[in-house]
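Lecture notes, structural biology module. Today: joint structure prediction for complexes of two components.
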Amino acid sequence: MRALTWHGKHDVRVDTVEDPGIVNPRDCIIKVTSTAICGSDLHLYDGYIPTMKAGDILGHEFMGEVVEVGAKSTLKKGQRVVVPFTIACGSCYHCGKHQYSACDNGLPADNQDIAQELYGHPMAGLFGYSHMTGGYAGGQAEYVRVPFSDVGPIVIPDGIEDDKVLFLSDILPTGWMAAENADIEPGDTVAVWGCGPVGLFAVQSAFLMGAERVIAIDHFPRRLELARKFGAETLNFEQTDIYDALMLMTGGIGPDAVIDSVGLESHGLYVDNVVDQIKASTFLGTDRPHANRQAIIACRKGGRVSMPAVYGGFVDKWPLGAFMEKGLTLKTGQTHVQHYLPGLLQAIIDGKIDTTFLISHRMDLEDAPTGYQKFHDEQNDYTKIVLKPGLNG
Amino acid sequence: MTDSRDDGPMVTAKKNSDELTAATVPHAQGSSAVARAVTINKPVTEVYAYFRDFSNLPSFMENVVSIDTPDRARSHWVVKAPGGTTVEWDARVTEDQPNALIAWTSEEGADVPNSGRVEFRDAGQRGTVVTATILYDPPGGTVGKLIAKMFQREPAIQARRDLRRFKQLMEAGEIATPAMNRKQFEEMGL
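The predicted structure, tokenised, for the full assembly:
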């Protein structure tokens, strides 16, 4: 089959590779019909993520048609499914509590060592995202082997086009969970740092959960325009002092809940920042912890902090004092995708959530290397690329 | 000063842990100790029964080539060692309490003298806590242990990974693998 493979920094290629096949009884094989390039894929592209090997197949946002099933799969050939980016067994203690991204069994035993050392515990596996998240082949390919296919993929009814449901695989449930973690109460004001795909979905979700006002913060005018389209008020941090503006806009109270979705494009574990102290200081120079600090300082007393943004290592100068003194609550974590799929699919079918506005470009899988380069170099125009195998015939 | 110990497991003691651990294993064989615990979301009867049938162990113990069980007390182990070699030994069960404990020791003449105990404890809603304590004499002593570690055949690493695979097999009914197809799976092993 054809697949987008990683060969090194800024070197991805569409190669002919081995076809996948059923290995375990709960597996299925899907023929990919749509797969997106995620912002976090750019970290692989930039060579930041360790434990990559030449020839690894990338991609963790994908959907397609079931073409083969293992003896214990509950899927049927011909069904269309969206596949969660997290690989979870569905039968461990955590899956039983719907904490799917904390699944005990999604990572192969040998691949659990790094997370066990770094975090104390291994987490769920991920598709197409280095060997410390499992070494699973990803979805930017013609076919994919999907483990635990009886609990992961959600079947899509006929008549709903791919583009409407593809983002169920990752960024839509991630934005939704970000809003849910903010414990929004009717009448709340919610501030969202970062208007990438997840931040924009968090804006939509916050309104659906009863927020009265959502204030969206970014510096890309196009992204702020999208947030405004969904009813948010916007702040451009290059033009406006964010703390002062938020205080004036909320009568000095501060937002009831704050959502840090800056840098969320990374699902990656920034292990280089953990093990390399020199890089760690570079990491501290980025604006990601800055947004987080700003959110905590602006949040009202007794308010809630939701952090879908991914952090992999350590942060310095984090305002723990403000956090304690104001009595804030923090909720965070990788997305429990499987938990949210049925409800969010229904919300899409009912027209309550729009996802297609994000897609700026559709390309053939064969053109994926160009897609990566454009997505990397021209972020303003290329907001989201969806790859379709065989698009050009 | 009285010599008092806290409630931490013996093997986690900062001083003399190997000797202390040896005291917890009947018929102790071996000077290096490793202990690991894992909680498996299945009833203790099921977990114990699968483990007690030693012929099941190679299904999740990566380095175990085969285990012959002439009777319920005795077993013959063939285990992969660094450099493409194998080591062998006979073992006998020294204690067996259904749904609670299995202890074993290697017989005289073992390539790698070893002994240990696996405890099974009903953890209610959480399933079963499985705690394995293994004592062993690595071939070639400290150097052998280092070499084994280099080849990732160090018993401490293996015990941790094997218990994870045991948990996966019991809970998920299969062992997670990144292999894309059967051919890759055969190349990778467990």
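Point to remember: Helices of chain B lie at 17-22, 44-52, 141-150, 155-172, 182-188.
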